[in-house]
Amino acid sequence: MSEWRRIRKEARQAKALERRANRTEELEYSRKLGRKLTWAEKSTVALHKHHPELRDVWGDLEAKIEIVVPQKAEQPADLRIPLLPFQLESLYWMRKQEEGIWRGGMLADEMGMGKTIQTLALFVSDRQKPNLVVAPTVAIMQWRNEIEAHTSGFKVAVWHGASREANAQELKKFDVVLTTYAVLESAFRKQQSGFKRQGQIVKQKSPVHQIQWHRIILDEAHNIKERSTNTAKAAFELKSNYKWCLSGTPLQNRVGELYSLVRFLGGDPFSYYFCKKCDCKSLHWKFSDKKACDDCGHNPMQHTCFWNNEILTPIQKNGMIGPGLIAFKKLKILLDRMMLRRTKIERADDLGLPPRTVTVRRDYFSPEEKELYLSLFSDAKRQFTTYVDQGTLLNNYSNIFSLITRMRQMACHPDLVLKSKRNASQFTADEGEATVCRLCNDIAEDAIQSKCRHIFDRECIKQYINTAVEQVPACPVCHLPLTIDLEGPALELDQEATTTARQGILGRLDVDKWRSSSKIEALVEELTRLRQEDATTKSLVFSQFVNFLDLIAFRLQRAGFTICRLEGTMTPQARDATIQYFMNNVNVTVFLVSLKAGGVALNLTEANRVYLMDSWWNPAVKAMDRIHRLGQHRPVQAIKLVIEDSIESRIVQLQEKKSAMVDATLSTDDLAMGRLTPDDLGFLFRVSTLRLEILMRFL
Question: Matching InterPro entries, A to Z (predicted)?
């Protein structure tokens, strides 16, 4: 008994000494800063006893790792395309990065500056294999085409589709293996969790995770930005000598998104979890029973993520002042040593890109359209004001989002609303249900499923979450707290049911009696004028609504235009064939593109006109970057088509207001653009500010 008391006494004394030492260090740090320490700063101090290497991480980083200053490398002899000066600089920088401690890094040049070509230059300057490129589905065939066009002797495999090679030894024979994030995640999931076969759970080794790659490239690397998703975990587990992240938007919404990229690149200690009570250190949050660490046995409160402590938490809580400013400076120290970013404006002389402009064409409803719209708007406004009067505005965001979507669709064409209920109800009792997004009642081109088992198009549900007032939005269907993996793999939908749904709105039209809309006729007028001026000019037409693209296609074909389309349901091979058909056929002058399918990784420089058919928070510049990029030699023009006296004109006004506000801050991202406040909602529904102010006093 006395021995037990002695042990307890020694333990108490050790804890007291540790607290005293921590307190002494805290006081010194506090005097140095001239203020009280934050919780995150105290947490960092608590790590120093058992992790002394963390005492001066940032000073060591700044002093011991030099910033690589880009210089012009020599043009690689085996690359068939001459590199621009800034691309030769990036080749030099990438080589030096691979020689250094990071063994890779982030190439974050703005969209359209040739990150693919710069990566191929790195490949040919160091022709070792195998190399793995992970890219969005829409981009993998473009990668293959670029490799074939600009290099020689590279053996390329596209690891995609049901018949893909399952043998790691065979994959290692290729110089470059191309795959998608969805396929990578699927292979990893089958390896970790298994899949059902004849009633048994079978685990299957992932070939790409068995190989020690020479070099791994993540194209559009922000696809792994959510660290907890299976897609990110699948990327983390890949093994290679060198790793690269390519992204024109490495930071989209939150500083926390950079964590996944840093972790993928192997950032020690920045992406590790540390224990305050012992020398336990791990890349993973190891609490299988949620009570004690699997390695050291200490509870979760004693473990902290270095990235959260040093970067994320201070910035989230303080912005650009005090601890937040210090965190931003630390982040800059890190990114200066692992990331290279140039913009089109900075390197305008090298790029020689033509000018680009954005204009807004404003039209009005026909009398019949106006009557239908006002009826819908009246019902929507009545519902909105009911939420305001009852003080339930923030609890009904999913319903409000649906009301806004209906009004946007009505401004495009009345049939999108009048026919949508039948379109949605057609798929409620069979397997075809999964083909319809529960937010817009349109085809779910990139379908994902929430935890409550409701199907949404990925782009629709992202917009819903990004514009939500609440921090944790409710499911738009069942109104439970929404849990959904935005970066997870797309659902594999029944092809026959999808095909039936795709024929939906046109199949219900009486073509002899069908009438166009003001917006479609405005587009026809624009394209007809363009055809008269120059019959070879090619145009892109973007819309979020697939059914609207159906109606546009029907009307344009009637007007004698030769068109083609890009949709999310296409296979990579079909997408590539469609893109090549548009680029190489002089008679095809109009390309209809779903924003949900064609928002990233497309190179369509044969076109120099963009028509944006429906307004939401996606800036026109994103659509323009499909054509305003290397290889474009003609002035680029984007035209927004807006119906006046509709919700669209209000959305455009909000866009302009929010854009000015965002430009005045550091946070130039989509989330800041998209977050709708109660005041914004009141503006869209034309509800008085006074009424909303009264409401907000009680929220």
Answer: DNA/RNA_helicase_DEAH_CS, Helicase_ATP-bd, Helicase_C-like, P-loop_NTPase, SNF2-like_sf, SNF2/RAD54-like_C, SNF2_N, SNF2_RAD54_helicase_TF
